[in-house]
Design goal:
The chain has 9 helices and no strands. By secondary structure, the chain is mainly alpha-helical. The chain is elongated.
Length: 188
């Protein structure tokens, strides 16, 4: 009889599975990747994968949730180290420029997931909306500290830069959005 699987083994296997799925889904698209490819990349048998996630849709949602925590956490760590409220808002665009220049940048994982599955998957659509609301709220907190009523334009500049950079493959939209945000904030 095989030894029981420990909580630590479950945690490690789940992380390996999420890492493999995220890399494949973000790099190639959700619908283009079959579960056999996820199995091969994770090194886990399909039976084990389906014990973690009953359906591919559940795996997609888990990937997006985990990516949201990491993505917004990294953004916050960068932005919140800047003491001046107006410069903090502008630091958002500096972080975006760095992200856009990373190898393998394919745009917004949530916009991509929405484009592929949003109309047909309520669970994915809910996760996409949750991320976008959380990103909006994050920006709202930083903009609120400036005392200026420009949350919506700053949010739209960030979203527009993300989509434009994802389509063009060029990080320049972050610089243009930063300049427009600086004008809104009256920052030098």
């Amino acid at each position: 009889m095989p030894a029981p699987i420990t909580d630590e083994r479950n945690r490690l296997d789940r992380e390996a599975l999420l890492d493999a799925a995220e890399g494949l889904f973000y790099g190639r698209g959700i619908q283009a990747v079959g579960m056999d490819e996820v199995r091969a990349a994770s090194g886990l048998p399909l039976k084990r994968i389906y014990r973690f996630f009953a359906a591919k849709e559940d795996l997609v949602v888990a990937v997006l949730q985990r990516r949201d925590q990491r993505w917004r956490g990294e953004l916050a760590a960068h932005v919140e180290q800047v003491p001046d409220p107006r410069e903090r808002v502008l630091a958002l665009f500096d972080w975006l420029a760095s992200w856009f220049a990373e190898p393998g940048f394919r745009g917004c994982a949530w916009v991509n997931a929405h484009g592929e599955l949003g109309p047909s998957s309520e669970a994915v659509l809910a996760e996409v909306r949750s991320h976008k609301q959380a990103f909006h709220d994050q920006i709202a907190g930083w903009v609120h500290a400036t005392g200026l009523p420009v949350t919506e334009p700053v949010f739209l500049l960030a979203e527009g830069a993300i989509v434009t950079a994802g389509i063009s493959g060029d990080p320049t939209p972050a610089r243009h959005a930063r300049a427009a945000a600086a004008t809104l904030l009256g920052a030098a």
